[in-house]
Amino acid sequence: MxxxxxxxxxxxxxxxxxxxxxxxxGVLGRPFRTPFIRLHDGRxxxxxLNVFWGWLNFAVAFALFFYIGPFSAAAxxxxxxxxxxxxxxxxxxxxxxxxx
Length: 100
Known about the structure:
single chain; mainly alpha; elongated
């Protein structure tokens, strides 16, 4: 498996993990931080903006999984790369959100 495809699957896992808290918070009607908070004077973003941001993260993950590097659940290297991206991003987000 070429390194570039494994990197694409790792990054897809990163975007997938990052999209979950934003999308879920938005769907639940809760404001949450996004990269756009500077537009709102440092406050949290609206639920609608979080749904959009989560969806955009999912779209990037989908493109990386299926268009940049064809993902195969039968390929152990594909699963490990994606799982590593999800795990590392999840741990990073847990630390960031615990501090706020």
